[in-house]
Amino acid sequence: MSVATLALHPRQAPDVYQAEPIPDAARAEIDRLLSSGDLFRYTAPEGAPVALLEAEFAEFMGCRYALAVSSCSAALFLALKALDLPRGARVLIPAFTFAAVPSAVVHADCTPVLVEVGDNFRIDLDDFHAKLDDADAVLISHMRGHTSDMDAIMAECDARGLPVVEDAAHSLGTLWNGRKIGTIGKIGCFSFQSYKLVNAGEGGMFVTDDPELAARAIIMSGAYEHNWKKHPGLQNSFHHWQNKLPLYNVRMQNLSAAVIRPQIPAIDGRVAAGRGNHDYVAERLNRSPWMVVPPALPKEERAPDSLQFNLSGFATDDEARAFQAAAARRGVSVQVFGLSKDNARAFWNWQFLGDLPELPKTRAMLMRACDVRLPARLTREDLDVIVNALTEAAREVKAA
């Protein structure tokens, strides 16, 4: 296509909110399940799709136990209940995360303690250290796939005997010093919601190497009566906890597992494509004087399906809003976390927590931090449209 034709018919911005398509390999299994009506994970004595998914996901992650549940939020809740924390236990969480994370802490009868997050989107280690002595547990959200310094965090927590739960909803496939995120703490929790790397609409996974935590979580997930016998191993622990734990019924059903299972072999390819897309866009945006994409930490190998950057030199909120509007006119949706009304990632909107702390570092970051989805399926031409829209939008606002 000639330059003149391109000028008359500019390329449309891609639809970045379109979810990953359901693999053809899932369709036959879905049809079989619908014909049989066997949607409940415990209907079959063995070999149910959910049970097969758990075994396959545990193998993929290199961990001993995996439990499929209804959402990552459910996995986080089960993680805190499995740890048997006392009522009111203080759980440190980053102040930059999704509202479901403090909600899970509250749901587990614990108290969220918000920790400052810096302009690199990672936990502020000074504030983390200052609040650690009064903590009963730590829940680290690798928000939008940004890994905090897990060596420093684990060293501090291990020295105090504090359990660490990893919210890896955005970090399936991310490595820290060669080790898979979600397997570093006591428990890792993952999401299969439509905007994540693996699309099941909804769904989550709880992983651990600790047999007692696994047994407790399995029973509380809803393995009532003797359905726990359909989970391999752990039989002595199951017998011990039978009827001693409440049932929260957050199980995954077989249709979700049938959608997820064919996508597990595709994870590594999606990770590589997503990282390539992210790094290409990040390098180009960092050429602009008005946008800064923080680099990965030295031990971090990211698996991004979105990109976050900070606006630089945008002195007022009106300028930042004008940037959003200018990008939108070019077909690219940009979310400025702190300026999007009722954004569930802005801590001051978590009014269900009651009195909220003043967290100046996190607040300042959120007021200029931008979020753009970059699904792994995008082409280089798609990425160029997004980059050009963002850079031209910034240039327009700053020229004005």
Overview of this protein structure:
It is a single chain. The protein has 400 residues and is of the alpha/beta class. The chain has 2 domains: 24-266, 3-Layer(aba) Sandwich (Aspartate Aminotransferase, domain 2); 267-399, Aspartate Aminotransferase, domain 1 (Alpha-Beta Complex). It is 39% helix and 14% strand. It is built from 14 helices and 14 strands. It has helices at residues 3-8, 24-36, 49-61, 72-82, 100-107, 125-132, 150-160, 211-222, 235-241, 254-260, 267-285, 317-329, 360-366, 380-399; strands at 65-69, 90-94, 111-115, 137-141, 164-167, 175-176, 179-180, 187-191, 204-208, 291-292, 300-301, 306-311, 335-336, 369-373. A 7-stranded mixed sheet has the order 1-9-8-5-4-2-3, sandwiched between helices. Strands 10-12-14-13 form a 4-stranded antiparallel sheet.
How would you sum up this structure in a few lines?
The protein is an alpha/beta fold. The chain has helices at 3-8, 24-36, 49-61, 72-82, 100-107, 125-132, 150-160, 211-222, 235-241, 254-260, 267-285, 317-329, 360-366, 380-399; strands spanning 65-69, 90-94, 111-115, 137-141, 164-167, 175-176, 179-180, 187-191, 204-208, 291-292, 300-301, 306-311, 335-336, 369-373. It is 39% helix and 14% strand.
